[in-house]
TrEMBL record:
GO terms for molecular function: endonuclease activity; nucleic acid binding; zinc ion binding. It comes from the Bacteria. It comes from Yoonia maritima. InterPro entries: HNH, HNH_nuc. Residues 185-248 form the HNH nuclease domain. Signal peptide: none annotated. It holds the Pfam family HNH. This is 5-methylcytosine-specific restriction protein A.
Length: 271
């Protein structure tokens, strides 16, 4: 049952969305489902995702808004156009194997207009839905992009531990840029758009090392240090995946790192 996989679901969602997540069991019918929401909002005051088994092989995921979501909906209505674009991109990254519905709206233009907004998806698993692998897959491929999209619209910053030294490095604008750099929602989209393969050497760490291969890194084509002020990063054009070796290698050139093409030329030379 899904309740047996609560811990791994919470872990996947926290890592993928960068926001605090709460979860509770919800009973009804023959199966016990899970309600999932943002920890700093009451369950009734924001978006809630319900996860249930559908038959023996599928998971049903439904996102809805609570009865007292007025303030949250106001925040979403005021979300900048760039955050709306990223939210739509996140929802568009939901697994194509999932049957997605957004209340009659399209994935390219949907908007949260009021509390009646909702989206649903159903994902079928070949080996059945009542196992940890299926729970992880549904979390990564459906729930994470759904909730990450809502987090982007609400305006959540990424949860990060405080600097143990108690000091911040650089000016306030630099701190804001660093927070954006570490945004797991940008990483999520970058890897979904470009794949988990190093754009320089072509290695796929996850294929080589299995579960220990979650070491692919995300590289900013335009260095953060060259920005005059924080800005939104486009995961398609501004970010690329690199293996740890290539990522360190491109940054050996300063202040601007090597282009990937430059590093590839170095790698193919006899030097």
């Amino acid at each position: 049952m899904l309740k047996h996989h609560s811990e791994i679901i919470l872990e996947e969602l926290a890592e993928g969305t960068g926001a605090g997540i709460s979860l509770s069991q919800v009973s009804g019918g023959l199966q016990t489902g899970l309600d999932i929401w943002f920890s700093d909002l009451k369950k009734s005051a924001g978006p809630v995702v319900e996860l249930r088994a559908h038959g023996l092989k599928s998971h049903q995921v439904d996102l809805r808004f609570g009865m007292y979501s007025k303030d949250t909906l106001k925040l979403i209505a005021e979300a900048p156009a760039e955050d709306q674009l990223l939210a739509r991109s996140l929802v568009s990254s939901i697994s194509p194997n999932a049957k997605l519905s957004i209340g009659g709206q399209t994935t390219d233009t949907w908007q949260v207009l009021d509390g009646t907004f909702g989206m649903s998806a159903r994902l079928k698993h070949h080996q059945g839905s009542n196992n940890a692998d299926a729970a992880i897959k549904t979390s990564r491929e459906v729930i994470v992009p759904m909730m990450a999209a809502m987090a982007e619209l609400i305006g959540y910053d990424v949860n990060e531990p405080e600097n143990p030294s108690g000091e911040m490095e650089g000016a306030l604008t630099t701190v804001e840029v660093v927070r954006r750099e570490r945004n797991p929602r940008n990483r999520l989209l970058c890897l979904r758009l470009h794949g988990h393969v190093c754009k320089c050497c072509g290695i796929s760490p996850s294929k080589t090392y299995g579960e220990a291969g979650k070491i692919i890194e995300v590289h900013h084509i335009q260095p953060l240090s060259t920005l005059g002020q924080p800005r939104q990063y486009n995961p398609l054009s501004d970010l690329i995946p690199l293996c740890p070796n290539c990522h360190r290698a491109v940054h050996t050139k300063r202040p601007s790192p090597h282009l990937v093409s430059e590093l590839q030329a170095i790698m193919s030379s006899d030097v």
